[in-house]
Amino acid sequence: MRSLNKSSRLRFVTLHTKTAFLFAVGLASIIFSSLFLTRYFFLYSLNELENIEIHRASSQAYAVIDSLSVRQEEASHDWAYWTETYDLLTQSDTGFEERNLYMESLDSLGLDFMSFINSQHEYVAGLGRDIEDPNAFTQTLLKDKGVAQHLNKMKRVLDSGKSGTYGLIREGDDIWVVSVTPVRNGTSEAEFAGWMLWGQHLTDRFPSDFVGILTAQNSIITDLDETKHLDEHIHEEGIDEHDDIDVFHTDSELYHYTSLTNIYGEEIAVLKSREPRTYYQKGESVFYYLIIAIGVVTTLVSIVIFILFRNNVGKRFSYFEQDIKALISSDEVNLEGHRDEFERITTLVQFLANNSSKTEGKLKDTLQKFEALYHSQTLGMVLVVDQMIVDVNQTLLDLLGYQRSDLVGQHVETLCAHSSDSICSAEQLFINLSQGLRQFEAGLNNGYGETVHCVIEATQFEQDDKMAVMLSIKDISEQKQQAVLIDSLTHRDSATGLLNRPTVINLIKGFFQGSDQEQNYSIVYFNASRLKEIDEVYGHLVHDSVLKHLADNLLIRFGDEFTGRISENEFLVWCVEKDYRQLERMANRLLESYSSKISVSGFEFDIGLKAVFVRSSSSFANFEDFSYVGLYALTEIKSTGKRGLVTVDESLIKRSQESLALNRDIMKALKSGEIVAHYQPIVHASTGQVVGFEALARWRHPTLGMVSPGLFVPLAEQRRLIVELGEVILEQACEFISDIQQKSDSSSQNRMSIHVNLSTPHFHHKSLVETLVNLIEKYQLLPGQLVLELTESILLGAEDEIVERMEAIKSLGVQLALDDFGTGYSSFSSLCNFPLDIIKLDKSYIDNLDVNDKAKTLVRNIIHMSQELGMTTVAEGVETASQLRKLNVWNVDEIQGYYFFKPMDKHQALEKFAK
Ligand code: C2E
Ligand code: CA
Ligand code: CA
């Protein structure tokens, strides 16, 4: 039971842990096995090296022994062919022994034994180291198989052909190097006398005499049994036998055996060479440490790899496992009894494959339902089942430039564009659907990697318990582009390309509201006062070129984000507060460049550019105050004609705030009767008798006191209250003249007129004629008693209509006067075309009478020509006796001016003139 639990627990070790573990173990075993393989080959090579070495050492030792025999044989010839030796054997010269046979001779020849035998092999003389009986030893040597065989052979050979022999001889446990040399007469080879035997005691001399030159430890083994039983020896001592039969090794030493043979060819001893296995042992211990070191490192690396693999790569396996588990847990597929994930996946895939053919069949049914829609020429259709695209119609392929195979079988996300200006995601699509949103806009990817703006309508239905969605798609990128174009048209002024007024106002308002207290703004207002005049004189084309000249300069200096056109001839530039000094500098430079005339379309123009600089400050409660002060300052400098940049200061702010207050209060003032007419008498030039009055509007402001019409009339014009104002004054004036008429004696000669200023809008106002009819009726005004003063600007426009209107007014018995004559642009000749009764010469002419001769000529002629045309002339603003004198000389009809009377209120006028 226990073991079963354990094994099943092992089976459920997660796949990613298992994989990581196997990966780490695999890596470790690769490293270890390659390490052991390397060790084997390395040690094998060392072994081979050592074999070569021992071979070499052994050959060297053998060569030493061999060279001993050869050298001994060569040396023996000297003695063998020596006459004295010859004599010893032939004449029994006993003196030879005394002269030559002593130990020093042996030492000098490197010998241990020397003897001479005659041709019958009888001992003649001899000497040996540690040998008591040289004769006996000689006999022993002669009995040696090899020597005996040679000498026997030589018996049958002619003396001249007799040769010696040499080699090893074994004598008991001793090995001797022996040479047998024929002794001859030193002059002729044919003279053979006997044999000379030399010997070296090899076992005594080798290897002790040669230790210095031999690389291995060598020894001569005479116990042949020992070598014969080498096999047993090997097994007993655990010696390894090498391929080369002569080499053997234990763990610590290496042996080589070379057999030594005697002259006869029999093995008499073995040369044993022995070397310690230094390389092998060193190599083995190095490997031992190497394996320990690499073992530790490999274990650590394996652990790290196990952890990393399990955490990184393994994580993905684990998600995969989870998904698989989720799939498996659906009860449709029975996956019980499968060993691991892969078996379960296989089963699952088989199940899905079986199922998909069924699904396909059902799908076809669905597609039929949408058949009609699919043939749509205008709508792209996409069928999505379980978020996968199952079908698309041709229109969609044409619309987005895809091949069918690009889309079918892909996730619906393939269509979604993730560009900066449009975000679409499949996730969002299904969120929208779940919220009941069926139609929405989205950017879709087309086949060329671009984004196409589309309107998508989604229809959701069930398809075999799966969620299916039919998407109908319409390209709206053209509309979008148009929207962008419209947007630019609505935000920019078409003539200059600058931002238009509403945009500028919204932008600055936005800054004002959005900004914190530190982030203030500065604004420069520009006014090109002469643009209108240029338009009237040179025509639209030239005007537009001049306008463009200015707009381009503004754009170059201030950039298109911060520059706007706020009216016909007014422009605005703004910047954040920190850059205000630069803005001020640049505005000054622009003004400078327009201070002299500019050349456009072959003409030279002064556009009358003026500018006001305003900084947002705590004095402004809101944006309206802020923007108002600039425009107010502009209207102020327009009248002063001041050039150069005007910086708005505290006093200007105060004045503008007053103006703003007037602006705010004017409506109420009109209703509540704060605006009243004052009256300035007009006198007959030659008699000085008052012939009429001009009604001049006054505003008795509760806090600001008496306000001049110069301030509030333009305000009323802007606020479209000028008609109301006109009607208030008109009514008061008619009442006044009627009062004064009733109170004075109503003889026709003393009939006085009342002049009322009529604004352009009022002149054109549809109810004007009706109002006049009512007033004349109400106040019983006589013909000619009411005079309406028109300005020259009224005369600009469609001439026929104006004349017709004038005639209509005149038909009521109302006279028409032209006010401020000479300040506008109408030429004197054009006056003839209008049915005017009175001409009012502007004060500026009168002011110039005392100083300017040209003004005199002009005024004199105007008076003269007016009279010619049957019009009455009135001189305005007469302040001095000298002016009056001149005007009288030229027969001006009437005078209005401080010289006679200043304007006065109704009561004063009534008191003074109602007699
Ligand atoms: P205006 O029609 O040319 O009126 C004459 C202006 O000259 C008046 O100024 C008058 O007070 C002033 N004046 C008259 N004689 C002299 C003089 O000898 N010396 C000086 N320095 N000034 C003199 P006011 O009343 O300030 O009116 C200014 C302008 O306001 C008028 O010029 C007129 O254009 C406009 N205005 C006044 N009342 C009305 C009105 O009821 N309706 C309309 N539409 N405009 C009005
Ligand atoms: Ca007037
Ligand atoms: Ca006037």
Automatic annotation (TrEMBL):
Residues 389-410 form the PAS domain. SMART domains: EAL, GGDEF. It holds the Pfam family GGDEF. Residues 519-650 form the GGDEF domain. Residues 659-915 form the EAL domain. The chain crosses the membrane at residues 21-42, 286-309. InterPro entries: Biofilm_reg_signaling, CHASE4, EAL_dom, EAL_sf, GGDEF_dom, Nucleotide_cyclase, PAS, PAS-like_dom_sf. Keywords: Membrane, Transmembrane, Transmembrane helix. The keyword Plastid does not apply. It comes from the Bacteria. PANTHER family: BIOFILM ARCHITECTURE MAINTENANCE PROTEIN MBAA, DIGUANYLATE CYCLASE DGCP. This is Periplasmic sensor diguanylate cyclase/phosphodiesterase. It comes from Vibrio diazotrophicus. The lineage of its organism: Bacteria, Pseudomonadati, Pseudomonadota, Gammaproteobacteria, Vibrionales.
